[in-house]
Each structure stands twice: as C-alpha cells, then as structure tokens.
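This section describes the prediction task in plain terms. A model, or a person checking by hand, is given the sequence of a single protein chain and must write out its three-dimensional structure as a string of tokens. No templates, partner chains or ligands are provided. The sample shown here is typical of the held-out split.
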Amino acid sequence: MKAEKTVVCRITEPNKNKLKKLEREYNKVQRYIKGQDIDIYSATQQAVDKYTDFNSLKKDKEYPWHLRNDTFTAEKAENTKRFNYWAKIPIAEKHGKITVPIKPHTEITKEMKIHDSKIIKKEYGFELHLSVSKEVEPIKTYKGAIGIDMGLNKLAVSVSLPDRQTHCHGTHIGNIQAKYYFLRRNCSNGYVRKKWDNKDKNKIKDICHQTSRKIVNKAKQNNLIIVLGKLKGIQNQNKGRKMNRKLHNFPHWKLRNYIKYKAKWEGIPVIEVSEVYTSQKCSRCKKIGKRHKGEFKCSNCGLKTDADKNAAHNIAKRGIGKSLKTSSDTRSWKSKDLHTMQNQILCVEPRDMAQSKY
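The expected answer:
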C-alpha cells in the first residue's frame, strides 16, 4: 500500500545573497503565472504549468513555486552541527542550484520517495513543502478500537476499547475562534485588521495536527483500529446565525483528513460509520436515553455520563461490528481475531466520567 504526505521544511537562515536569489526567482514565477513574458528555469516552468489552475487566478493572490522532482534535492547535512538538512534549489539566473539549510517538521528518511514539490512564501520567509511517499504494509491484527466523536464544545472525544480510556481534545478552540472573530469585527480595515487575519486558523491547524498525532500514536501503541463517525451534511444545517458560523468554521474535516493520512502512513485502517443515534443510544444497554446540556442519562439502566463520551463509545463499538462484516475484504483481517475482539469489546460497559482519563 502506498502512503503519501507532505513534509513542511522551513528554509532557515540563508545568507543575503541566496535570499535575494530566492526572492527574485519567486517573484519571477509569480509574474509568469500572471501572464508576463518572464525567463524562468524551464523545468520549473513545466511544473508550474502542470499544477497551476490558470483559469481561476486572483490578482492579489500569490501562488506556489512548483518544482519538478528531478531538479531539486533534499538531503541530510554532513560536517555541520547547525543544520540537519540541506536543499538544492534550481535558479534560472545561476548555472546549477543554490544550497540552503532547511528544517523539516519530521525526519526525512531513506524509505521516502520525493515527488514534485513546491515552495511557499510566508510572513517569516520561505517553506519547502516536500511531497513524499512510501510503501506501507497494513497491520492485520488488532486488539481493539478507538472511537472518535467530534462536536462544537470539544473538537473531539476519543474512547479506546477495551480499556475504556477517554481523552478530550481541543476544548479551547471555540474560545480561540471567538477571540479573533471579535478582534477582526471591532477594528477598521487595513493593517490592524490584517494583523488578525489567519491567526486563529494557524493556531487551530496546529491543534488539529497535535490531536491527530495523539490519536494515531494511541492506536499504533495499542494495536487499535480508528473509527470515525460520518459527518455528511453537518455543515448544511440551518441552526441560526451564530450556530451556523460556528458549524462552518469548526475544523471537523481538517481533523478527519489529518487522522486519515497519518493513520495510513502507519498502516492503520480508518473505518467510517454512521453517527445515527450514537449520541442518543445508551452505550451500556443500547436503549434510547436523554441528552441534556452535554450529559447523557439512560432511564432504563441508570447510566449517567458525558454525552460525547457515550457517543464515542458507541462509534467504537459500531466500528468493531462493521470490521467483522468486512473481515474477508482486501484488508485480510483475521476473522478469528476480530470475533475475539468483538466478544471482549461489545460487552464492555462505559465507566463513569470521573473514573476515566478525561
């Protein structure tokens, strides 16, 4: 199985001469994209033509500087303690390439195959976004499942079975969004307003990366499958102006995509199940209970617990049931192991919230 991801590498501390060359080449690429007759590196021109949508260009927007994979290299730095990696980038005005130090957010290993990539300009400088892939052997035996319930008050609540450990993620995202929304709304247009643009998006993106990494690491360490509820139509609901704004801005899809690609990189399958009645059905006796102000109560068996935890518990159980039905598909999961897992998990009763690692 082929797994793909992007390794973000910050170009750090290039000398003034190299920085000027990067700036000039980047600006040439922008002018070429906007239709000007500019001389840029021929292979770069081919890559830009391949990946840029020229039919939907915006005048004030800057576009990535695309690089063909055979024109640049990113490799381990030797004989220096200051930087771990170097990148050699083609420049039209110079014969050959310029070498700049880079700082990737994760290690670049020999098993990774580097594909066509791109350079993006940020406020603090340039980033090289490496598109990499590797062959992954899917894991075929599992000891349980981790169910993920996504909401508005909490980004996600995860429940792992059979140990029933519960974790709450991203409880402060709503506060971050509200803070920067009011800062932008209450200031005039121009520099002051521009200063707050994308601040909340960058913070939330980082939280989603951290949350997805924690979930995938938990699944990897404990041999768990990951189960997500389907979110079809969640942002198409009309729940009033204020709630609609929260629904459209909440990063459910971002977190889901991060979990999926990071899990695939580790060979961990991600199962999607219907969320119908997962928040209203009791995870102990399967009867319909009542959800009120974040709390779930079951009048049949007396269960009283956090509503999101109850939903995540149901999602995990539903994922185990679905995995049994697909035990003979291309994943080749061992049916015997899955039935054993089901017997261990589907009879598990949820702990009270005070006892869980929340």
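For orientation: The CA atoms of residues 83 and 219 lie 33 Å apart.
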